[in-house]
Write a structure and sequence with these properties.
single chain, mainly alpha, Cytochrome Bc1 Complex, Chain D, domain 2, two-stranded antiparallel sheet, two-stranded antiparallel ribbon, 6 strands, globular
């Protein structure tokens, strides 16, 4: 049985009763690649049901590199104004999204799309709302750092100045030396990119009420309303799981064993082109919704899909994915689905960064 299908079977079985019980909440796994002679390898702490992420051979994970990447992620010195950081568009309190319809760059320009939550990006096959060809976090990182039309972080042309500033900072010099020991050019643009990508791979969230119910055998973790919503979610009539499948509720994924299929895109009635199927984990924290942030609430999203059948018929089926629902929801069903979607929130994930150093509180306010 394909790995994706096996996970879906577990989830569907959970509608009747918790499927896996009696084990601890975390598993430890070794990274796909490591360089133990140079730096202590990173020790994954993975939620139950989560596979080991894939890691590029030329960017092995290490504890020191992840710590450096976290510091850089929250450092406003990377931006052209000195007032924005990666966290300006990817706030941990919002599951690394930003609460705006579309992201705003360092110079105040609106970007084309809503800021995707970075949760569980270690498992992405591709990156971005509409692109199939950006296939690594390292490659994706170049866009916000170097894009000029519009400017996002605004690092283009300032790479040498940033490298000089970080090299002159004793704390950063030590952090780069620990992350890249033995490398003559420890502080470099390439190392900045690889460190941030390594940190982003650790943004793994999977300790929600849903996970406790399915994987830890906590029968009372989900309310009756949420359980009814879960049954609807996985039903063929409502069809949410036709797109939002797998352990991350985002369709196909990539892990250390390979890819389960092509990156998941769908036509959902909001665009003429297919857009990414985003994860639904922590979805209650990441409003507004869709690639252009057009819906402020989950209720509005469900109303959109509830009316999809009528709109699809009116358009002759153009711009609609056949996996999308073709049946309207009652008000009670909508409330049940929202209860289930809310059960995918991982409060421990949010607390992890609220309690750790180099959070947005340590960076200057935005423009």
């Amino acid at each position: 049985m394909p790995r994706g299908a096996a996970w879906l079977l577990i989830a569907v079985q959970a509608i009747g009763a918790p499927a896996i019980a009696g084990a601890g909440p975390l598993t430890r796994a070794s990274p796909l690649t490591r360089d133990g002679a140079k730096a202590a390898p990173y020790r994954w702490q993975l939620p139950r049901g989560f596979p080991t992420p894939a890691v590029p051979a030329d960017n092995p994970m290490s504890e020191a590199k992840v710590a450096l990447g976290q510091r850089l992620f929250f450092d406003s010195r990377l931006s052209v104004t000195g007032r924005s950081s990666c966290a300006s568009c990817h706030d941990p309190a919002r599951s690394f999204s930003d609460g705006r319809p579309v992201a705003i760059g360092a110079l105040g320009e609106a970007l084309p799309h809503n800021a995707l939550a970075l949760v569980n990006v270690a498992y992405n096959i591709s990156f971005g709302w509409t692109k199939h060809t950006v296939r690594s976090l390292e490659a994706q990182m170049l866009e916000p750092l170097l894009n000029q039309h519009p400017v996002e972080i605004g690092l283009a042309g300032r790479e040498a100045a940033l490298i000089a500033a970080l090299s002159a900072d004793p704390a950063y010099a030590a952090a780069f030396a620990a992350a890249y020991p033995g490398d003559a050019a420890m502080v470099s643009f390439e190392h900045i990119v690889k460190a941030i990508a390594s940190f982003e791979r650790t943004l793994i969230s999977g300790r929600s009420l849903f996970d406790r119910y399915v994987f830890d055998g906590e029968h009372e973790a989900l309310s009756g309303e949420a359980k009814r919503g879960m049954a609807l979610f996985f039903s063929s009539r409502v069809g949410c799981s036709g797109c939002h499948s797998g352990f991350d509720f985002a369709g196909n994924w990539r892990d250390s064993e390979g890819e389960t299929g092509r990156a998941s895109f769908a036509r959902n009635g909001t665009s003429e082109e297919a857009v990414r199927v985003p994860t639904l984990r922590n979805i209650a924290l990441t409003a507004p919704y869709m690639h252009d942030g057009r819906f402020a609430t989950l209720e509005a999203v469900l109303d959109h899909y509830s009316g999809l059948a009528q709109r699809a018929r009116a358009s002759g089926g153009r711009h609609y994915d056949r996996r999308l629902p073709r049946s309207a929801l009652t008000s009670a069903e909508r409330a049940e689905l929202i209860a289930f979607l809310s059960s995918l929130t991982d409060e421990s994930f949010v607390r992890r960064f609220a309690e750790s150093p180099h959070t947005p509180a340590d960076t200057p306010p935005e423009h």
